[in-house]
Amino acid sequence: MNYKVRYLWRQFLDQTGYFSKHNLTPLLFYAIGLVFLLVAMTFMGPEGIIRYLYTVVGLMGAVWLFSMVVLNRNATFYKDSVVKVSYVPLYFRMLPTVIFQTFIFVMFTVLYSAFTALVVDDWLIDIFSLLYYTVLGVILIIPFILLFLTVETPNLGKVNVAVFTVLVLVVPVLYLPESIPDVFENILSLNPFYYVVNGLQSNAVQLAWNIDRLPHDILFFSQAAFLYLWMLGFYSKMKFNLYQYRKKRQDA
After folding, report:
1. Mean per-residue pLDDT for 134-146?
2. Cα 218 to chain centroid, rounded
3. Is 8 exposed, middle or buried (0-12, 13-18, 19+ CB in 10 A)?
4. Which stretches are transmembrane (predicted)?
5. Per the structure, how many domains does the chain have?
6. Contact partners, residue 37, CB within 8 Å, separation at least 6
């Protein structure tokens, strides 16, 4: 276990070294969102600021979830790192990127709320709800990281753009949930990504988790349980596919 802890700590600190341009791209998006928030504060009233905060937290939530998937793929194939799967479990290799990106996302989400408090009276984000929905996001994304590691396509960049576009469209970033027909909202709310992102957005505008959301939590954990059952059956086969993928790259 000690070597795993050392590996986790070392890789976490090295996040700005390996693929630094890629690993810091989400940080750039979060910083741009903060700059736009500061600019908006000079033109908008409290209502406009809150509406902007809701939108930017949703968009950055999508960036956070997507970045954990793409950056883990980069890390897996960096300098023949697939070889290390034999002594460092693949699921453990995900953690440095996940922890690093999650830390940055939470930090900026708190900053968004802190700056909003400068123009909106008695504004305070619920940190426990923020951490709760963040943990749900991490739980949800791990099976999708494993799935994405097996994607083999020469046009991976286009696939990334398409996946991120779909993610933004299915979560409430470009629209408010109450602005769409109830039937569409009910269908979209079945999506676990929708629940995580909307939970982060709602908490950012002072609608913290409460007991009324318990049915949604039950649905989320049921969906997560099915994903993890699939992951357990897929994991061994996926490692073999990764070795084959590396071998084909070497032969090419």
Report:
1. 92
2. 21
3. middle
4. 27-46, 52-71, 91-115, 127-149, 156-176, 218-236
5. 1
6. 49, 52, 53, 56, 112, 115, 116
The per-residue pLDDT for 15 is: 64
Tell me how far apart the alpha carbons of residues 102 and 117 are, in angstroms, rounded to a whole number.
23
Residues spanned by the domain of 216: 3-251
Q: Is 250 exposed, middle or buried (0-12, 13-18, 19+ CB in 10 A)?
A: exposed
* pLDDT value at residue 245: 58
**In the chain, which ranges are continuous DSSP H helix?**
2-13, 20-23, 25-41, 46-76, 90-93, 95-116, 127-149, 156-170, 182-188, 192-204, 214-251
Q: Mean pLDDT lowest for which of 19-28, 33-42, 72-81, 146-155?
A: 72-81
The CA distance from 221 to 105, in Å, is 23
Cα–Cα distance measured from residue 75 to residue 185, given in angstroms and rounded to the nearest whole number: 36
Dihedral, 145, 108, 42, 119 alpha carbons, nearest 10: 120
pLDDT at 102: 94
- Name residue 134's amino acid: T
Q: What is the DSSP code (8-state) at residue 111?
A: H
